[in-house]
């Protein structure tokens, strides 16, 4: 039996998930298929079984084309669309791609117009993508890409939670215990990424990345926390375990990001962020830095 509440009880904006026109997909080469999918967390959140695509099979390549097109549009504003060779070399070969697809004949006109008929060739058209890649550390993966059609359509045409649930599906399906990731401090995606487990800052300032104001995080995947994304309640467990570290971080200020990074580098952490605080503030507001409470 699963302890996790049903998704539909968490929000009445999730009925799209039950539609027969919406299904999760897995895009993975045969040898990267997951053994015993979903075994670790017994989530039972997703009513429909995924279907499989293989980027190495020529007849399936249209699906990767459609994904590349959706992803390029979603990342255009941030100027971080993924080169196709990165998709192949860094996602398809080592990793695992999943997301949601919509039955092509049911795709609304507004979305069809954005995607273009050349990207709606098969029975199913992908509308979100989560890419995750294993690292050299046992059980640790890197979330490499998250994108959803919601970023391209008007508020009334969105499938609420599509981006969040795409990553949730991938983490649960692939039994991922530790997930790192990379995002920019003021990205809307911070509001999603911080809910998958207690969110530790690995780098606060990242000059090795194209954008120095990049945050690298790591978390122990904890589906007990996922419901709060929908209920927007605070997590009692977070406040039980963590306390403010006396830093209110201005994420616009390189000096402060560097100072925090130096503390991480010097082993003064680990430092954490509160998902509920991120969600309830503006994207460029100051953020409280937390540390673990000391025992006793
Ligand atoms: C970031 C992204 C994946 C989120 O997926 P999504 O399907 O739009 O989001 P969901 O429906 O799952 O979640 C909605 C929540 O996300 C947050 N959110 C999404 N887009 C937002 C935006 N433009 N501004 C502020 N918050 C936003 C909100 O908190 C919202 O919930 P709320 O209104 O109840 O607070 C999607 O917008 C996207 O593809 N963006 C472009 C690519 C990108 O930046 N990817 C992340 C790289 S790290």
What does this protein look like?
- The protein is α+β, with helices and mostly antiparallel strands.
- Helix content is 27%, strand content 24%.
- The longest helix has 14 residues, at 61-74.
- It starts with 6 loop residues before the first helix and ends with a strand.
- The chain binds coenzyme A (COA).
- Coenzyme A (COA) is lined by residues 74-75, 78, 146-148, 150-151, 160-164, 183, 187-189, 191-192, 279.
- Coenzyme A binds next to β6, α5 and α6.
Layout of strands and helices, then pairs:
Layout: H1 7-10, E1 22-27, E2 51-53, H2 61-74, H3 84-92, E3 96-103, H4 109-115, E4 124-126, E5 128-134, E6 140-148, H5 162-173, E7 178-184, H6 190-193, E8 199-203, E9 214-220, H7 227-231, H8 236-241, E10 242-249, H9 254-265, E11 271-273, H10 275-280, E12 287-292
Parallel strand pairs: 1-2, 6-7
Antiparallel strand pairs: 1-3, 3-4, 3-5, 5-6, 7-9, 8-9, 8-11, 10-12, 11-12
The structure holds coenzyme A.
Residues 74-75, 78, 146-148, 150-151, 160-164, 183, 187-189, 191-192, 279 line the site of coenzyme A (COA).
């Amino acid at each position: 039996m699963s302890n996790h509440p049903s998704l539909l009880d968490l929000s009445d904006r999730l009925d799209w998930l039950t539609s027969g026109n919406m299904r999760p997909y897995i895009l993975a080469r045969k040898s990267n298929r997951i053994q015993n999918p979903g075994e670790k967390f017994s989530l039972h959140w997703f009513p429909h079984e995924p279907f499989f695509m293989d980027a190495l099979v020529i007849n399936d390549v249209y699906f990767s084309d459609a994904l590349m097109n959706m992803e390029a549009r979603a990342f255009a504003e941030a100027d971080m669309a993924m080169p196709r060779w990165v998709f192949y070399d860094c996602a398809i070969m080592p990793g695992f791609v999943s997301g949601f697809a919509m039955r092509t004949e049911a795709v609304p006109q507004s979305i069809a117009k954005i995607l273009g008929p050349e990207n709606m060739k098969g029975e199913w058209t992908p509308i979100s993508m989560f890419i995750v890649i294993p690292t050299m550390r046992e059980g640790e993966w890197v979330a490499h890409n998250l994108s959803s059609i919601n970023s391209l359509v008007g508020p009334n045409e969105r499938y609420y939670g599509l981006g969040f649930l795409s990553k949730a599906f991938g983490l649960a399906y692939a039994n991922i215990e530790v997930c790192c990731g990379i995002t920019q401090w003021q990205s809307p995606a911070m509001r999603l990424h911080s809910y998958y487990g207690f969110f530790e800052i690995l780098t606060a300032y990242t000059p090795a990345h194209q954008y120095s104001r990049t945050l690298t995080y790591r978390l122990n995947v904890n589906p007990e926390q996922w419901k709060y994304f929908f209920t927007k309640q605070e997590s009692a467990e977070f406040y039980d375990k963590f306390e403010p570290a006396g830093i209110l971080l201005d994420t616009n200020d390189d000096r402060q990001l560097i100072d925090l990074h130096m503390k991480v580098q010097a082993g003064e952490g680990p430092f954490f962020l509160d998902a509920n605080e991120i969600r309830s503030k503006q994207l460029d507001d100051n953020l409280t830095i937390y540390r673990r409470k000391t025992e006793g």
